[in-house]
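Reminder to self: tokens first, then the designed residues, so the page reads top to bottom the way the pipeline ran.
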């Protein structure tokens, strides 16, 4: 226990100071030079986004001129900004932000001469993924061939810009064919206090435009899977713990639905999902050993599964945290207080004190201790999966935490459940309508993962696997296949 507490503080301070060092160097590098006068920026369009960006630019010291169809300056336009016609405004700046919907771009062809050589920043988004055959930025480049088109800012919302709540979306994806133009736009992004991420040429624009339209792509599988498992285990426990008692003992335990059943389902889900984080790595190792090479694609389903392991782990951590909360309220539950008091009263009435069962006390304390340690490491895994922390550790450190400590977490949580079961596994009274206790089912996947992993670390399998992951091939003919892709070594 002492060692674990020490290791917790070690990890905490290690990540904290690493983060501090990195942040301080970022601050040094990114602090804009306020002594330089900023160049004028032109914004076409006085809609929500144009106004929000103009407001932010003015705050950051850029003179802003709006190009609009209207000659009258609306009250919502920042008062320090100028407002002119499109042609007049374009002449005042070298960087022009097109804050207009794509379907209205046509009028820009009439300004082709004025826009020649200027940097046009396309900020537009679409309503559907891959709505047009080409990206909006490429379409803009076709309409105004003499201009240098750069895609940027489309992942930042007008509301976040205006309200200053940019913490969650500080990154700005930037792409463009002209390196100098892209660099100038990235400098503006930095000056606004945002972080530019160079995504390459305009070919990347379609992907950047699709990005804000995606709905948690890597979370779909973990969430659907956990919903299905939750439903299954909820009804399984309902049948065993409520309906069975009602049918056979005529006892109404329907209130179990609120705390008892969720407190059974949550740890079951946490354990199964944690095991499913490590199962694809084990399967990948078996496939690599069987094929004798790492230079062949894994099946698509395995690739996708491996990509969403972090999300699976975080959903598992959420279930484990719920289990902890549900467990904390057990002593104040009316049913539990009634059960304890009736046991005390029956002992008093019988004038007989139950002796302390030492074996049971050992089992109960060990089960709790394993749960506490397992949850502690689970939280540590969750913390290291945060981008701000994982960006500050090297690959070996990350692998150590996610793989070695991850397996230790799985071992502790599986042991927690095994000890909870104690000697009830073989007792016939644990089976109702031939259905075993739900926690017994939850042990199947973790036990399979741990047993196979144990077999895989035997030297006779570990050595060839390590060589394969270092590039050795048992049968080099595979490397001649044209469509191979180097698979990431499974963690
Ligand atoms: P909006 O409120 O509809 O404003 C667009 C502006 O375009 C209008 O205010 C108008 O300005 C101009 N416009 C409209 N019809 C035009 C036409 N036929 N010819 C020329 N100009 C015309 O849209 P928005 O929300 O500001 O979004 C602007 C662009 O930013 C869009 O491409 C959007 O995808 C992108 N974007 C928006 C957000 C956001 O949070 N809103 C976030 C990221 C990206 P004038 O009346 O001054 O001419």
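Designed residues (491 positions):
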């Amino acid at each position: 226990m002492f060692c674990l507490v020490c290791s917790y503080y070690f990890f905490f301070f290690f990540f904290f100071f690493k983060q501090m060092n990195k942040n301080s160097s970022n601050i040094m590098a990114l602090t804009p030079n306020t002594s330089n006068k900023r160049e004028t920026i032109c914004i076409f369009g006085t809609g929500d986004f144009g106004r929000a960006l103009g407001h932010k630019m003015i705050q950051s010291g850029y003179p802003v001129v709006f190009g609009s169809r209207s000659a009258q300056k609306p009250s919502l336009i920042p008062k320090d900004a100028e407002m002119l016609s499109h042609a007049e405004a374009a002449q005042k700046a070298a960087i022009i932000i097109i804050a207009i919907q794509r379907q209205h771009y046509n009028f820009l062809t009439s300004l082709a001469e004025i826009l020649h050589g200027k940097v046009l920043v396309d900020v537009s988004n679409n309503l559907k993924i891959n709505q047009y055959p080409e990206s909006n930025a490429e379409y803009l480049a076709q309409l105004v061939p003499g201009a240098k088109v750069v895609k940027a800012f489309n992942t930042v919302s007008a509301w976040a810009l205006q309200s200053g709540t940019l913490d969650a979306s500080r990154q700005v994806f930037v792409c463009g064919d002209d390196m100098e133009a892209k660099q100038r736009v990235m400098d503006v992004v930095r000056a606004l206090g945002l972080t530019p991420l160079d995504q390459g040429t305009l070919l990347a624009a379609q992907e950047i435009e699709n990005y804000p339209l995606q709905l948690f792509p890597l979370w779909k599988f973990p969430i659907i899977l956990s919903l299905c498992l939750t439903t299954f285990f909820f009804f399984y426990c309902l049948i065993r713990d409520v309906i069975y008692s009602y049918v056979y003992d005529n006892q109404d335990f329907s209130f179990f639905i609120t705390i008892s059943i969720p407190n059974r389902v949550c740890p079951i889900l946490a354990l199964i999902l944690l095991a499913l984080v490590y199962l694809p790595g084990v399967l990948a190792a078996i496939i690599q050993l069987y094929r004798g090479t790492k230079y062949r694609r894994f099946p698509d389903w395995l690739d996708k599964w491996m990509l969403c392991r972090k999300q699976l782990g975080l959903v598992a951590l959420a279930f484990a945290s719920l289990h902890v909360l549900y467990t904390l309220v057990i002593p104040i539950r009316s049913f539990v207080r009634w059960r304890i008091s009736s046991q005390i009263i029956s002992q008093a009435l019988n004038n007989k004190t139950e002796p302390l069962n030492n074996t049971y006390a050992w089992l109960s304390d060990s089960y709790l201790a394993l749960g506490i340690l397992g949850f502690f490491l689970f939280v540590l895994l969750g913390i290291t999966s945060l981008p701000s922390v994982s960006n500050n550790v090297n690959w070996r450190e990350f692998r150590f935490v996610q793989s070695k400590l991850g397996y230790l977490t799985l071992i502790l949580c599986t042991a927690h459940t095994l000890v909870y079961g104690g000697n009830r596994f073989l007792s016939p009274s644990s089976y109702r309508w031939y259905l075993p206790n739900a926690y017994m089912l939850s042990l199947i996947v973790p036990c399979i993962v741990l047993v196979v992993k144990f077999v895989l670390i035997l030297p006779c399998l570990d050595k060839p696997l390590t060589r394969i992951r270092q590039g050795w091939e048992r049968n080099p003919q595979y490397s001649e296949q044209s469509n191979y892709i180097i698979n990431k070594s499974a963690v």
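The pocket of NAP is lined by residues 45-50, 68-70, 99-101, 104, 107, 123-125, 154, 157-158 (CB under 6 Å).
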